[in-house]
């Protein structure tokens, strides 16, 4: 959750810059019927239908209160498969191309590294 606070601060800092932020809610990383962790704040089964995945994303939205668009990956996991995002990953897309690809989270998820790359791109 600490990373979420840093991300929200970054959203605010860059709100006046010509950049857009987007969160893509992908498949649940630690569902109760999968590789579950006792420390999980949300106790969710792996969604079997899009409606369940959307409900899980809505729980995230309600909790996180992130001020950027949040979209939900399809049940075929197209975004997750294309970007290797499970359980979390950071990207900068510039003119339709990947300008920055962060490491897989949570261990290689680095918002400071993302911000340095973003600053280079927008020349802050």
TrEMBL record:
<dbReference type="Pfam" id="PF00837">
    <property type="entry name" value="T4_deiodinase"/>
</dbReference>
<protein>
    <recommendedName>
        <fullName>Iodothyronine deiodinase</fullName>
    </recommendedName>
</protein>
<keyword id="KW-0560">Oxidoreductase</keyword>
<comment type="similarity">
    <text>Belongs to the iodothyronine deiodinase family.</text>
</comment>
<dbReference type="InterPro" id="IPR000643">
    <property type="entry name" value="Iodothyronine_deiodinase"/>
</dbReference>
<keyword id="KW-0712">Selenocysteine</keyword>
<comment type="function">
    <text>Responsible for the deiodination of T4 (3,5,3',5'-tetraiodothyronine).</text>
</comment>
<keyword id="KW-0893">Thyroid hormones biosynthesis</keyword>
